[in-house]
Every structure is written in C-alpha cells, then in structure tokens.
C-alpha cells in the first residue's frame, strides 16, 4: 500500500504586505455609538446610534421617504395584521395625518383586526382553545361588518378599504385606532387585498364572494395607480417613490410585484423607486418581490426587527429629519 504523500507547509516569507494606513477600512471609531445622558432628546438618541448595518439602512430609508414626499411622490406601506396586533396603529395613522404615508395596504386579516380594535377596543383570539370548540373565527359582528363593507365597496366602486374605513370612522367608538379610518379621514388611499378562504369572515353566511372579489379588485387597481404615480421624469439619480413592506410574508409582496409590472407596462419610470422590508425574519417573497426584482441594486433595504420597536423608531427618525433646517 502506497503511503500518503506529505504536503509541506507553505512558505509565508514571500507574502506581499502593506501598512495599515494603506488599507481601506469598513469600521471607524467615529461611526461607533455615542453615549447620551439620561433625559436626552429623541434627536440626541437618533444621532447617537452607531452608523452600521440596520441603522445605516434606517437612515437611508428615512432619507428616501423625506425626498419622495418633498418631490410629491407616493410613500406606500403594505402591512400584515401583526402590525396592528402589537399596537402600532397609532404610529401609522399619525404618519398618514402628517402626509408622510400616502397609501396603506392591508391584507384581509389586517382589515379584520383593524375593525375589531376600533369597534371594541380589543382583538385577537386564542385560536387553539377556540378551534377545539369549533368557535374559532365565529364572531358575528365582525363578519357582518366586513360583509357590509364588501357590498358597499363593490356597489359604489370605491373598494373594500375605503368602504370599511368610512364605516369604522362613522360607527366605531375607538376609530382613532383604525388605520383604514385614518386613511379615509386624512384623504389617503387605504386598500385591502383579500385571498378568499384565508380570513375568518369567509366562513360566515353573510360572506359574498362576488362582492369581496369586486371590492378587493377595485383596491388592486387603486394600488396599481399608486405605483404608477411613483413615476418620475427627473435626473436618473433623482428621488422616486417609496414602498415599505411591513410584516407581510407572502400576499402583499405578490400584490406589489404585479402592480410594478402593470406600472412599467403602462410606461411608468420606476428607476428611482426605493423599497424596504421591515420584519422579524427574512422571507423569500419580500426579499425577491420587494427588495430585489422591482428595484435597482442598492435601493432595496432589509431591516430586521420587531415592529413594535422598528416602526416607532422609523416615525421618530422621519419627523426629526423633516424638521431639520
């Protein structure tokens, strides 16, 4: 049997080396976190954050949002229901009131929780416990309200989001917590994008598939128009519109991708578009359909974190940036 050949150690004396001053560096001390005193202002806190990774992307996103609104271009937020369930509705409503967010898009579950929170001041059930009793999703009032909104949205051709938002604004005691009512009150677009069979209200006898489909399809066309409005005809490096996906792993990234295709097909120049994804985890469809395929390299930003931390921080950063001289 042949013995294995020994490989001699490499001779390192011939290496080409450089001085540390000749090398470019990715980390410098002037980008490290600053230490702020107790009682410091929000601006002090934001400026003290270390200028790396998520903080740098957050600052880039803030800059893109401020630039878009300065140029009167849309800033759209597409959100899953979890944003509402962790108490972030007032943050979104305030950004609509201030004219920062011009369009909010929810999935069907988001619309359900938005309605229940505004109608009763509470939402979200123990799925496991209620499922065993055959009572999961069997709340009558929610199904009746969503069905009436779908019928009105289809009949009047205003879409499900606007019809439900107006109903909440008129009838619900906690309407100030409603994202859809906020959109209606502040003349922002609010759309709801439904996949039939995914939402609890679809199990109820009031549910009308034709009305849901018609109202939600109107919302899709409104959504597409908002993406078309992100068109800009300025310099190649000028600002474009902004789309932020928050907590929707599948449905809204798919809706956004189709809307981008429609907009480009109709001649919209989306080369300046900026997108971002804010979520606790990274998922395939937000990465591909929001951050990669629709935008040029460098204009899609992934910010991983909890919504209840990231969204208030984003709001504070936007307001500080808007108030700077």
Describe the structure.
This protein is of the alpha/beta class and 325 residues long. It has one domain: Deoxyhypusine Synthase, CATH 3.40.910. It contains 13 helices and six strands. It has a six-stranded parallel sheet, with helices on both faces. Helix 11 links the parallel strand 4 and strand 5. It starts with 41 loop residues before the first helix and ends with a helix. The model has no long low-confidence stretch (mean pLDDT 95).
Q: Classify the secondary structure makeup into a structural class.
A: alpha/beta
Give the number of domains: 1
The low-confidence runs, each spanning 5 or more residues with pLDDT under 50, are none
Assign the CATH superfamily: Deoxyhypusine synthase
At the first level of CATH, the class is: Alpha Beta
Give a short synopsis of this structure.
The protein is α/β, with parallel strands linked by helices and 325 residues long. 47% of the residues lie in helices and 10% in strands.
Give the helices and strands, then pairings.
Blueprint: H1 42-48, H2 53-70, E1 75-79, H3 82-85, H4 89-97, E2 103-107, H5 108-120, H6 127-132, H7 140-155, H8 160-171, H9 179-185, E3 189-193, H10 209-228, E4 242-246, H11 251-265, E5 274-279, H12 284-292, E6 300-304, H13 307-323
Parallel strand pairs: 1-2, 1-4, 2-3, 4-5, 5-6
Task: List key phrases describing it.
single chain, 325 residues, alpha/beta, Deoxyhypusine Synthase, six-stranded parallel beta sheet, 13 helices, 6 strands, 47% helix
């Amino acid at each position: 049997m042949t013995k294995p050949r020994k490989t001699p150690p490499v001779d390192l004396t011939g290496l080409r080396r450089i001085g540390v001053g000749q090398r470019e560096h990715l980390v410098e001390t002037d980008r490290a976190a600053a230490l702020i005193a107790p009682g410091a202002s929000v601006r002090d806190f934001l400026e003290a954050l270390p200028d790396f990774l998520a903080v740098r992307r957050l600052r880039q996103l803030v800059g893109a949002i401020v630039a878009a609104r300065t140029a009167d271009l849309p800033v759209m937020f597409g959100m899953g229901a979890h944003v509402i369930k962790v108490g972030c509705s007032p943050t979104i409503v305030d950004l609509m009131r201030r004219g920062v967010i011009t369009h909010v898009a929810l999935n069907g579950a988001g619309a359900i929780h938005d309605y229940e929170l505004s109608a009763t001041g509470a939402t979200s059930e123990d799925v496991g416990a209620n499922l065993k009793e055959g009572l999961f999703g069997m709340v009558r009032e929610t199904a009746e309200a969503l069905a009436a909104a779908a019928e009105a949205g289809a009949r009047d051709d205003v879409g499900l989001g606007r019809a439900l938002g107006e109903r909440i604004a008129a009838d619900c005691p906690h309407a100030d917590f409603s994202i859809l009512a906020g959109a209606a009150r502040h003349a922002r677009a609010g759309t709801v994008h439904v996949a039939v069979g995914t939402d609890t209200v679809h199990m109820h006898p009031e549910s009308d598939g034709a009305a849901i489909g018609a109202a939600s399809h109107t919302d899709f066309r409104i959504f597409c128009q908002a993406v078309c409005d992100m068109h800009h005809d300025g310099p190649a490096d000028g600002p474009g519109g902004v789309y932020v996906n928050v907590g929707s792993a599948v449905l809204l990234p798919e809706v956004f991708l189709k809307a981008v295709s429609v907009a480009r097909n109709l001649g919209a120049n989306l080369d300046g578009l900026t997108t971002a994804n804010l979520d606790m985890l990274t998922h395939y469809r937000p990465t591909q359909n929001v951050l990669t395929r629709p935008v040029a390299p460098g204009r899609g930003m992934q910010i991983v974190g909890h919504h209840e931390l990231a969204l208030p921080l984003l709001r504070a950063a936007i307001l500080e940036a808007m108030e700077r001289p």
